Amino acid sequence: MRFAGFETLGPLVHLLVPLVIHWIAEEMTVSVLVDVTTSALCPGKSTCSQAIYLSGLQQTVVGVFKMFVLPLLGQLADEYGRKPILLLTISTSIVPFALLAWSKSKVFVYVYYVARTISYIISQGSIFCISVAYAADVVEVSKRATAFGCITGLFSASHVLGNILARFLPEDYIFEVSVCLLIISTVYLKLFLIETVNSSSRLEQHVPLMLMVQNVFNERWNSMKDTVTVVSHRGTLKHITIVSFFYELGMSGISSVLLYYLKSAFGFSKNQFAEILMMVGIGSIFSQILVLPVINVLMGEKWVLCLALVSSVCYGLLYGLAWAPWVPYLGASFGVVYVLVKPSTYAIVSQAASSNDQGKVQGFVAGVQSTASLLSPLVMSPLTSLFLSSKAPFNCKGFSLVCASVSMVISLSLSLSLSLSLCE
């Protein structure tokens, strides 16, 4: 008997192959970036407040712009097609990693932060929401939760492969290999992905430049107002948007400081980071591709979401209250379940939105999530830096992570009253 999840992936092969290559290329750099930035900015030190603040500043700037860019890209994907927007988003990571492949000096690290910030503004979150919209174009409603679970499962598989490469490749070659893979993924997508949307026909000839720019902004503004109206008038979409906001507020806060916290509190390095990320990734593949299709039928999207949110709270608390080097490994094990937040959210949003609004609504929800991700570093960066320093008011190096977990508790409580609806 063939597994239904893999049958569902058939129409998505030429989307998933370049995405997997792209995700591998990005993930293989994660565990080494902490060591590279800390060594460049704070030579000889295990704790680097400058790197923590730069990371927080980057996330805040990205969040500010993503509030506008994500919905805009979602609208453009609905009007002009998924393929050109995907090509734009997955190609933006090439330049930042090429900089670090060239040099890991202090100056190049600063330039990397600038280039990576621009890359994140365009690609972070948008790749997923446009991919989900593409999947919604070719997969029937009843199978979308399974398809989204498989997509996020392959995302986890890519993380595993990326961390295996990071674990065994010499640090000097990681960025070079990453750049090569990023170029391959972009070329593959350009050559093989089939467009699912008929591009809007525009007649802009003989129109003055300023008038053309004004028309573009007016169209974007009207489209955004329409999207807000769609979301605000559908209870399910409004409710899941609020749930997503509080979840992302907590989880993005943890993600922004976690590796720096582990390096300072327990002396973790590239190898330990890669081991934790691989452990989570392997479990996530199993949970998203094999378990999610089964429990989704038994429990439904709402209760899968609630279960995943409970796990995310445990994840944050165990990291924040870790008293020994083995506790972060235990906390990471809850990542196997909390990763189900994303596919269940995608499925709920997709079911509540019409086929013509998939890109707009997914982009709007992603934009709200980006608002949360810009707010969290404003608190997490200084709070983490304070409790990792000798000036901490009490001994709890992971106190900021405990605070972030409170936001996910709020998200969990809101999800319990979520009422699902299907858009005809």
Automatic annotation (TrEMBL):
Subcellular location per the Swiss-Prot or TrEMBL entry: Membrane
Membrane topology classification: Multi-pass membrane protein
Gene3D superfamilies reported for this sequence: MFS general substrate transporter like domains (1.20.1250.20)
Transmembrane helix found in the keyword field: yes
CDD domains: MFS_SLC46_TetA_like
Keyword annotations from UniProtKB, A to Z: Membrane, Transmembrane, Transmembrane helix, Transport
Official protein name in the record: Major facilitator superfamily (MFS) profile domain-containing protein
